Amino acid sequence: MTDKTYAFVITVVAALLASVVSFAAFAQAPPVITYQDGSTYTLKNGEEVYVNAGPMYIRQDYANTGDVIFKKRPPWPKRDSEQTPSVNTGNPGEHEWCKDFKMEGYSFAYVSWNRYCDTNNDNKYGCGDDPWDDSEDGAACPSS
Predict the structure, then answer these.
(1) Which of 2, 22, 40, 95 has a CB 3.0–4.6 Å from the CB of 135, allowing a cystine?
(2) 6, burial (CB in 10 Å: exposed 0-12, middle 13-18, buried 19+)
């Protein structure tokens, strides 16, 4: 085996292992819905919830008359906790928000943290991530 082939095989194996590890971490976090009032609901296995900002309706067809009736569906009543202040304050992507971010399950905030804060994809926020390096804290990072 040549050096180039060996390097290629090692790179492919490393990429495969990294994707398996990242998928395993992603698959373990249950989806969490955070409502506008600060309350949350964690989905159970196999449970489906449709999220919509406006009202939702249930369609009911009557075969004998051909009528179709839409009834307004009440909002989902279940909650894990009520009106808890979010621990993630500030604007997503700002240095302070990234630094203070606390994982609250797989949520839109977590997706934003992955996209805007963890720019080097190492699942932690610090040296090497763009918002960190652009802040005052970035002065302590070794230059690359």
Answers:
(1) 95
(2) exposed
DSSP H helices in the chain: 3-28, 95-100, 108-112, 130-133
Rounded CA-CA distance 110/105 in Å is: 8
- Determine how many CB atoms are found less than 10 A away from the CB of residue 119: 17
Location of structure tokens 């839409």 = 70
Instruction: Kindly state the tokens that stand for 66.
Output: 């051909």
Q: Which residue has the higher pLDDT, 71 or 47?
A: 71
Report the chain's terminal Cα–Cα distance, integer Å.
Answer: 33
Q: Is 42:31 a contact under the CB 8 Å cutoff?
A: yes
Q: Where are the beta strands (DSSP E) in the chain?
A: 32-34, 40-42, 56-61, 68-73
Residue at 11: amino acid letter: T
Cross-strand partners of 31: 106
Q: Which residues pair with 69 in a beta bridge?
A: 60
Residue 55: C-alpha distances to residues 18, 68, 140 (Å): 42, 18, 50
Write down the residue that tokens 């230059």 correspond to.
Answer: 143
- Report pLDDT digits (tens) over 61-90: 998 998 999 999 887 778 876 554 555 567
